[in-house]
Amino acid sequence: MRPPRAMNESSVASPARRESPPAGLVLSALAAIETSATFRRSSRHRQLLRHLVQRTLDGASGEIKESVLATEVFGRAPSAFDPRSDTTVRVELRRLRLKLDRYYAQEGAGASIVVRLEAGSYVPRFEARPGAPPPVLAVLPFTFATTSGVAADTLATAEMLTDEVVAILAELPGLRVIARSSVAASLARSRDVRDIGAALGASLVVEGQVSAQGARHRVSVKLAATADGTYRAAHVYDAGAPNEPSLVHRIVRDLVADLALGAAAAGTLARAARRVTESHEARDAWQRGMYLLRRQRADEFRRALALFDEATVHDPQFAPAHAGRAQAAMMLIGLAPTPDPALIDVARSAAAAALALDEGLAAAHGVEAFLAFAIDRDPGRAERAMLTELRLAPADAGAHRRYAWQLMFAGRFDEAEAAYDVAMSLDPLDARLRTHQGLLWFYRRDYARAAARFERVLEIEPDFIVAQVLLASAWLNAGQHRRALAAFRAIAAHWPDDSIGALGVVQALALAGRLPAARAAWTALLARFGPDHVGPYRSAIAHARLGDADAAFAALERAALLRDMNFVCVAVDPSFDALRRDARWPALVARHGVAQVGAGAIPAAAGV
C-alpha cells in the first residue's frame, strides 16, 4: 500500500471559497460545535478549531501552516519547533477531523452550516445546507391484497420488499427513516397514518400493497402526509415477482423524486443498483437470510448464516451476501458468553470479502467496528469503522445505537447520550433502545433515573428480561438490597435456565451483609449451572461482591483472554467499583485495551 502523502506547508493552505456562508452563521455553527457533547471536554480541540475558523474568516488562510499552528496554538517556541520530530500538529488535526465527523454523524446531523476539515488541508471549508429540516419517513410493511391461498413464503416476500426499500432509503442523505421496530409497534396501536405520524414523529408514510394477477404481480405504492392523511403521490408497478431487484430500485427512485432529494441521492442509488446479482438463487437465499436476521433469535441467526453461505456459493461476487454472512456471525457472537473462535473468523473474513467487493457496504463496516471494539479491543479502529457506517447509512437507527453502545462502554457518557438521542429519533418505540438509554444512566450511577427508564420499558413489555435484570440491579446498587433480592429471586424462578437471576441473589445477599448465605448461594449456582455456563465475567462479579479481590481479578483475566462478551462492560460496570481502588486495576484495563475511566467520568452514586 502506498503511504499517504505527507502534508507540507505549501499544500495545506488554500483560500476560502467564495460561496461560503456569512461569517455570522459560521460563528454560530462554531458555537454549537464548542458546546456539544462531542467537544465539551476537549479544550485543546475547541481552541484549535476556533483558531482555524477565525483565521479563515479573517482572510488569513494563507497563514495557516504547521509551524504557525505549533507556535500559536500548541505553544512551541518558533526556533525549537521541528516538524520532522514533533508531530503534534498533524496528530491533533487528525483527531479534530475525526471529532468533526463524529459530531456531524450525531448531534450536528441537522446542522444548517457544516465546518469541513478535509484530509490534506489545514484550512476549514464552510458549507450551507438547505434550511428546511429533512423529511421524516415511515415505511409501513407491504401487504398482500388477499392472503387467501397465498403461501407463507410468498407472503414473506412482501416483508422482504419492505426491508430492501427501508435499507436503501436509510442510506440517503437528507432523509430520516423510522426503524421497522417502531413502525411495527405503532401499527399495533393504530393504522391511521395521522396517528402513526404522531407516535413516530414522521411527516410522511409509505404504504405498499402487492396483488397477484395470474403469473405476475402488481405493486401499488402511495406516499401519504401524516398531517392530514392525504396522498401526495401514487405509483403502480408490474413485476413477475415482488422480489425482483428492478422493482425495489424503481420504487426507491420514484420516492426519491417524490421527496425532491435530487442529486444528493444519486450516489446512493447508483451503489444500490450495482449490488444486484444475476443469480436468482443467490438473491432468494440472501433475501430469506435478511428476513431471518430481524427475528432476533439464535436459531434464526444460524439459519440465516446457512442461507448467506448458500448465496455466496451461487454468486461469489454478491457483496451483500458476504455482508449478511458477517452480520449473522456477529449476532451469534454477541449471544454467547464466550464467543466461538470459528464464528469470529467467519465474521472477520466475510466482512473483509464484502468490503473488497463493495467498500460502500455500511453493514460490513459495522461488523468491522464490532470486532475491533469487542474482540480486538482497538477502540480507535472501531470508532473509525463506526463513523464510516454512519456516513454510509445516516438514517440507520441500529448503527447509531451501536455507536452509542461503544461510547458508553468507553465512559464517554455525554457523547453516548447524544448518539442515543439520534437513535431514539429514528426508533422511538423500540424497547431495547429505551433500555439502553436507561443503562447509560445506570453506568453514570444515577440509579433513580435508570430505574425510572427500566420501569417505563416494563410497563410496555413486562416480560423483557433485560429490563427486569437492570431494574433489580439499579435497586441493588442504590442500596435497596431487600427489594433487589426479591426481584432477582423472581427472575431466577421465571427464567430458571439463565444464571443471571441466581447471580443477582448472590450479589444482593452479599451487599446486605449476609456473607455466609451469599457464599452458599454462589456454591449452589456453580453446582447447578457449571463454571463454563456461568462464564468468567459473571464469576468475577460474584467474587467482587463477596469481597474476594484475588479471585475477582483472576476471573477478569480469564474473561479477557476468552473474549467473554460481557468484558466490554468492565470499564464502567459498578460491580467492580471496589476493585477500582486496587493497584492491580489500571494494569488490568491497560493490558486488555480497555478504557481507563477516571473518577470524574463516573459520578458518585445517586439513590433510588
Structure report:
The protein is α/β, with parallel strands linked by helices and 608 residues long. It has helices at residues 9-12, 23-34, 43-57, 66-72, 88-105, 152-169, 180-187, 193-200, 245-258, 266-274, 280-293, 298-314, 319-335, 341-357, 362-375, 379-392, 397-409, 413-426, 431-443, 447-460, 465-477, 481-494, 500-511, 515-529, 531-534, 536-546, 549-561, 584-591; strands at residues 113-116, 125-128, 136-139, 143-144, 176-177, 204-213, 216-225, 231-239. The strands form two sheets. Strands 3, 4, 5, 6, 7 and 8 form a six-stranded mixed sheet that branches. A two-stranded antiparallel sheet has the order 1-2. Strand 1 and strand 2 form a beta hairpin. Helix 19 runs antiparallel to helix 20 (447-460) and helix 21 (465-477) packs parallel to helix 23. It is globular, with a radius of gyration of 26 Å. The termini are far apart.
**Could you state the oligomeric state of the chains shown?**
single chain
Instruction: Report the radius of gyration as a whole number of Å.
Output: 26 Å
Helix content: 55-70%
Strand segment tally: 8
Structural class of the secondary elements? alpha/beta
* Number of helical regions: 28
Strand residues, percent: 5-15%
Main beta-sheet annotation: 6 strands, mixed
Cα(first) to Cα(last) distance is: 55 Å
Low-confidence stretches: 1-18
The coarse overall form would be globular
Mean pLDDT score:
88
